[in-house]
Write a structure and sequence with these properties.
282 residues, disordered N terminus, alpha/beta, Urease, subunit C, domain 1, 6-stranded mixed sheet, Diaminopimelate Epimerase, Chain A, domain 1, elongated, 2 domains
Length: 282
């Protein structure tokens, strides 16, 4: 993880250096006397610099780009401990900036078994397999089920009850804007025929039109949070642990900066504390 983060930071520096000044050519003309930590050579490097949009090589020292230019010149930066990466003609891009994401909330939401399948049978099979493999798990969580698998009225608690009737099951949709709960989860959350919807007209518990019982389909975040907070309260510690598990996925995908568009499910105070504590740890 340390190497991924260091590489991600280094690649992000391309953006700031190239946009701050037309310094690419100056870097190319003035090789450093110190050896680079990493060299990327023999590639197609997109620099985001209008004066020099393309290059062949990049030299990285610490968290800074110290050279952008030709592969032949980059050899001057090679030292005994330099890691040399031959791009073999492949493209190297500056780090991506994710402009709208919920990193901490997303980490909480994506806990459990992956549900990105093409049929309901596959989804239920994955949930059952996950539950059977984790008999000690008090609450079965999952993430990623897709809306087209179900009618407009959504998934039902009976579908989950048929495979796991004795433990609460709570599954979140691929966009994290809907939930799916079994009967035990609804019971633990105290959702009955008399329970008011969290935000009528926006967020509600889907109900049977005849019996008024909740079907297990939780529409929008307020209803989802109401149920989850009762069956599995989201503490700051749990949120921080899940967030740290998620972090390596960002540099692995080339993402070096993110904008947190909201801290639903954990609250701004805890969210800011998690960020500041991670920053202090470096």
């Amino acid at each position: 993880m340390e190497s991924l983060i260091r590489l991600a930071r280094a690649l992000f520096t391309i953006v700031s250096m190239m946009l701050a000044t037309p310094a690419t050519q100056a870097l190319a003309d003035s090789p450093s006397n110190t050896a680079a930590d990493m060299l990327f050579t023999n590639g197609k490097v997109y620099t985001v610099n209008e004066a020099q949009p393309w290059a062949e090589a990049v030299a990285v020292e610490g968290n800074k780009i110290i050279y952008v230019g030709s592969s032949s010149t980059t050899k001057k930066y090679a030292g005994k401990n330099t890691r040399i990466i031959d791009l073999d003609g492949k493209m190297l891009l500056p780090g991506f900036i994710e402009g709208h994401i919920h990193p901490i909330t997303g980490a909480i939401a994506s806990v459990g078994v992956d549900l990105q399948f093409d049929t309901i049978e596959e989804v239920l099979g994955a949930v059952k397999k996950y539950a059977d493999a984790n008999p000690e798990m008090e609450i079965i969580r999952g993430f990623g089920w897709r809306y087209p698998l179900f009618p407009v009225t959504g998934p039902t608690k009976e579908q989950l009850d048929s495979i796991i009737p004795d433990r609460p099951v709570y599954l979140i949709a691929i966009d994290a804007h809907s939930g799916w709960a079994n009967s035990m989860a609804l019971k633990m959350a105290g959702v009955t025929t008399d329970t008011p919807d969290p935000q009528p007209g926006f967020s509600h518990y889907q109900r049977d039109p005849k019996t008024k019982e909740a079907t297990g389909y939780l529409v929008e975040v307020p209803a989802m949070i109401e149920v989850l907070s009762d069956i599995q309260p989201q503490t700051k510690q749990r949120a921080a642990e899940e967030f740290e598990k998620l972090l390596p996925q960002f540099p692995a995908a080339g993402i070096t900066s993110v904008f947190d568009a909201g801290l639903g499910g954990i609250g701004e105070e805890y969210g800011f504390q998690i960020y500041t504590e991670l920053e202090k740890r470096g």
